[in-house]
Amino acid sequence: MARSRLTPERESELYEAVLDLLREVGYDGLTMDAVAGRTHSSKATLYRQWGSKPELVAKALRHNKPAGLAEIDTGSLRGDFHAMLERTDDCQMEKDSALMRGLAHAVHENPELHRALRELLIEPEMSEFDEVLRRAVDRGEVSADNPALKLLPHMLFGAFVARPLIEDRPVDRAFLAVYVDAVVLPSLGV
Amino acid sequence: MARSRLTPERESELYEAVLDLLREVGYDGLTMDAVAGRTHSSKATLYRQWGSKPELVAKALRHNKPAGLAEIDTGSLRGDFHAMLERTDDCQMEKDSALMRGLAHAVHENPELHRALRELLIEPEMSEFDEVLRRAVDRGEVSADNPALKLLPHMLFGAFVARPLIEDRPVDRAFLAVYVDAVVLPSLGV
């Protein structure tokens, strides 16, 4: 795909607008027309650049993620998890949680969105987590055959999505730090 | 509320119709007119009996739940969890998972639904889990100050909702049994 005509700043602006719209109207309500309108670009540019709405949304979400989780390497698994938490502020987490709730529903009805999210967001992020876990296994902190190694995304997703639903409280760093220490690390035998 | 005019069979039928509609059109798409139409009842009856759409939906969901989780008492926490899993079949779980994904989104935009679900579904179910956990604490299986005691719903919700999203596979009994053994019990120190 030819991306040469968009500066990184312009691309960022577009992704921010997509995420704002996603929070305001949800995936089904988001139209390429609305993105074009809000960003003062043409629909032709959007389609040339991103191909489709699911791809645009998945790339916007990926853009939103702090890069290079796998580069965090504090020397202990607990240190790595807590360093990850340090990198996101509470306000951002609350926004992410709302987006994830909306998307968990939307992917159910939009297989194309599901595919784009898996390919562009879920799988790359899982690879980064796998890298952090692999180092813990190499250090001997976690047993290589611990079945919880494959369940980390499920545990974290539960923390993110369930707290607002069950406790009626937003997800924040303090809660996730407790969850990591009380659920994630014990399941991994750390 | 006067419930005298509905037999338990008729009430069941109504709840089933509400859940079918919920799966077909989602919470926002579900109207009291559609419920009345499908069940050949009058809207006046529905409102007299349930007061509002959020209350009707919450009661239909509660009706759908296997009763008396707290009565399961096998003598060990692991036994209790696995006995709970035995009580639901895979097909039912897949349906529940789809409903939960839809509702996680809907409650975000419908505080009245959130309130009804918390009061009629989430809190009663959490009380039942608390009872099962309390017995494990009394038996000395789980330490009374284990922080994971308060995080069980989050762990389970993650397993239910994340598997289709992350692995593109439905939730089934075999997966939940692995999750209970690999995540839930270790976090509780069992």
Automatic annotation (TrEMBL), chains A, B:
Transmembrane segments: none
DNA-binding positions: 31-50
Range of residues in the leader sequence: none
PANTHER family: HTH-TYPE TRANSCRIPTIONAL REGULATOR RUTR (PTHR30055), TETR-FAMILY TRANSCRIPTIONAL REGULATOR (PTHR30055:SF149)
Coiled-coil annotated residue ranges, if any: none
Organism: Streptomyces solicathayae
Alphabetical keyword list: DNA-binding, Transcription, Transcription regulation
InterPro entries: Homeodomain-like_sf, HTH-type_TetR-like_transc_reg, HTH_TetR, Tet_transcr_reg_TetR-rel_C_sf, TetR_C
Source organism, top-level taxon: Bacteria
Database matches in Gene3D superfamilies: Homeodomain-like, Tetracycline Repressor, domain 2
Pfam families: TetR_C_11, TetR_N
Domain HTH tetR-type: 8-68
Protein name: TetR/AcrR family transcriptional regulator
